[in-house]
Description:
Layout: H1 18-27, E1 31-35, H2 39-47, E2 52-55, H3 59-62, H4 74-87, E3 92-96, H5 106-119, E4 124-126, H6 134-142, E5 147-152, H7 158-161, H8 171-186, E6 190-194, H9 198-207, E7 212-215, E8 223-226, H10 228-231, H11 248-265
Parallel strand pairs: 1-2, 1-8, 2-3, 3-4, 4-5, 5-6, 6-7, 7-8
Family: Belongs to the PanB family.
Cofactor: Mg(2+)
Subunit structure: Homodecamer; pentamer of dimers.
Amino acid sequence: MSSSTTLYGGASGRRVTVRDLAAAKERGERWPMVTAYDAMTARVFDSAGIPVLLVGDSAAMVVYGYDSTLPVTVDDLLPLTAAVVRGSSRAMVVADLPFGSYQGSPQQALESAARFMKEAGAHAVKLEGGRRVLPQVEALVSAGIPVMAHLGLTPQSVNVMGGYRVQGRGQSGDELMSDAKDLERAGAFSVVLECVPAELAQRVTTSLAIPTIGIGAGAATDAQVLVWQDLMGLTPRPARFVKRYSDLAGEMDRAVRAFADDVMSGRFPAPEHTYT
């Protein structure tokens, strides 16, 4: 991708890479990331120019109906990741490593990440945590697997954190900054900052050469990510950091009610929907 081509909506004829993301940071160009879990929505987002699609462990809630990210497994996420890869042609597809698939050891992380790369065709993986996962990050990067890090509110650690709370206030902000720099040195190509004070996210973004991706972290990060069901208005009680860009739940409700009315009244199928 040439320096004159923007990351969002650009037409390069190839997949977006970590080098493209680094170049965007150097240009001061902000970019969007969206979650995706199936081929059809991936195709829509890819066609819209979204440069990075995240197959998040949020699938635990928005796809599988759990109340947290903890129950979802590698085997649950592999087919979703493969579908997103098949449904896209330009976006980088990042696969979340789910809870319990990497915390045990660098070898466990490598085995889990390798499955996403080999079986699903992912282009990178994401994992949560700071200094405690540095050996895992180093092992993955050494094996040729790009790693997106994740700091702040890390949902897989929600029970330790005592709930979904803003992270990085006071002294813990210095610890987060230190973790971010350590992750960069370990080889992470970007870092998600979730639910941290905007001032801290700005300092981290300025301090790092790699892109930061905000979610509830203010406007100063290099990129922003949202779960697509949140931004489309499907989730009933979105977090404060979510902006709804559509009322897809309302549109779906109206459409399915109209279909039901047409079926019950005999208006559907009409002659134009019938074979002779």
